[in-house]
Amino acid sequence: RTHDQPYSASLRPDGSVRLIVGEDTYTISSSLRFTGAPWRDIGHGVGPGDWERFHVGKMAISAETEAVGWERSVLSRGSHLEFRDTFTNRTDRDQPVTLVNMVDCGTVDRIAEFRISGQLQEHFYACTSSTESRMTAVTPVCYVGLQRSAVGVVLEDDAYRNQATWMTWDAVLAAGTDMLYLEPFSTYELVWKVFPLQRPGYYDLLNAV
What we know:
Layout: E1 8-11, E2 17-21, E3 24-34, E4 40-42, E5 53-56, E6 60-64, E7 68-76, E8 81-89, E9 95-104, E10 111-116, E11 119-120, H1 135-138, E12 141-146, E13 150-155, H2 158-163, E14 165-169, E15 172-182, E16 187-197, H3 202-208
């Protein structure tokens, strides 16, 4: 059977994605950091930072400096949103990349269920370590169930799922890494997905994945 879900998604001028599932609204944003540069906040915080070029299109973002490039494509599938983030190192030196992708679920009191890699958590709290556990690498899925809807975040590509740390604060679920490196003049694409569920149900998420 189909696992399509009724939802709407739009890319806003600040770079955030507004995801509407029934009567609930989720906000998806990111933060990026490159060598010797401050954090660049996409869709929240102080703003995208100092790029030589920063452009937000219909469902895509492109940004670049002399040293690095970043492009995001947001693809609306029937059952989920697919994020493709392409990082480019334009220099002849190694380029470390630190990144955090976030889903703001509104307020904590609306969260009824939280699972990391299938394991039910007593509270909405996460601070995992990829060096201490292979749980995320094996099952790179987080689930947040509200009272009327839910979202699941799935890390798709090998680097992200093996390096990621799941974090929470306020009503925000985040997946970050500070271990991504780009060799000189190279490109890497991170792929991650957000699954909206009109009705809460962890096993519906698994079936859709």
